[in-house]
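Late entry, written up from scratch paper. The run itself happened at the end of the previous shift, but nothing got recorded in the book at the time, so transcribing now.
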Amino acid sequence: MSLFGPPNVEKMKAKGDIKGLVKALTYEKDQTICQQAANALASIGMPAVEPLVAALQDKDQKLREAAVQVLDKLGWQAPNGQLEAYYWVTKQQWDKCVEIGSPAVLPLIEALERGHAAESVVTTLSRIGVPAIEPLINRLARSGPDPTLRAHLENSLVQIGTPAVAPLILALQNEKTRHAAVAEALGLIGDPRAVEPLGAILRDPKNDFYLCSDAARALGRIGTAPAIEYLIDTFKRYDVAFNAIVAVATIGSSALEPLILALEASEILVRVGAIIALNEMGAAAVEPVVAAFKKDGLAASKFAAALSTAGDQLAMGIGAIRNEKWYKDKYEEKQRNSGTRQPYGPYRYEHVRSLINLIDPRVIVLIAFFRGEPSTLDAAIQKALAKLD
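Output as recorded:
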């Protein structure tokens, strides 16, 4: 191939420069040269087959497609197995890949890595089924920072479904394959068998933030009573508490009773987490909290006393619970003035903790629901008081 000008196809053909001709198949500036190179390779015949077959595994989609066209002209018949799979993947003949089965898995995963026909590849891997599970998990466990590839690998396992659960659990329990994406895949499948191993991840302080965060979200998706128990227990951990709180809140009505019971837990961080989680759940949590509080004969007086005695601490605590913008602004101002950087989660927790020391957690939940601006009470607070009489 010329160093500065376009490839000289005739010269390369005369010299038997098969490597140069294969490279010329993807010459972007002139499609005529690409076609001339394809014709030259076809005329060379069998000596060109091996380099063209090797090109089927190249990352360049255009080169792979050109190689297939020349191989077809030569009447090449792919041998059974992986080479045949590379050929059919390039031609996007997905039924052929399913027929090949296990040898097609690696070429299909490589296609996912390139982002080639991802939706069809995911479906094809799921149709291959069990033989694809282990390679998919191994690739998922080293999926790195590419969110698109991770999503495609996870989706393949989710479409395979139940047969993938036990291997995913084993991967989660193996240090070499323990990965946040493995935890997420288990949550997306939603099989209750995953609850205990996911809960074990949360209870091991050696596991990193990202793994624990995805384990929490996975438990939230599964949403069974044991999953809720693990999540509420995770409120004790400053690092992943908010992920656990959001996960519980997304479960919905089945989490209400455990969260209301958690308002009276002995550990203050559990009480804090329960308050924030109930607030995240919004209106659906109001009536159950009111009903739980009405069992206390002094409910109304406790409510009124809380409003009259807490002062500024009430405003800051409720601002923290509701995650108000003005509260975030105060946090940012303090960070600038102090010259230090305290993580927002623990900063927010401290204000809720201080409030709990003064007020019954059930009262705090109800005030937070009906709180308006930090300096005033919403009229709806009066309706809540009326319900407690």
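The domain at 1-77 is CATH 1.25.10 (Leucine-rich Repeat Variant).
(Scratch paper discarded after transcription.)
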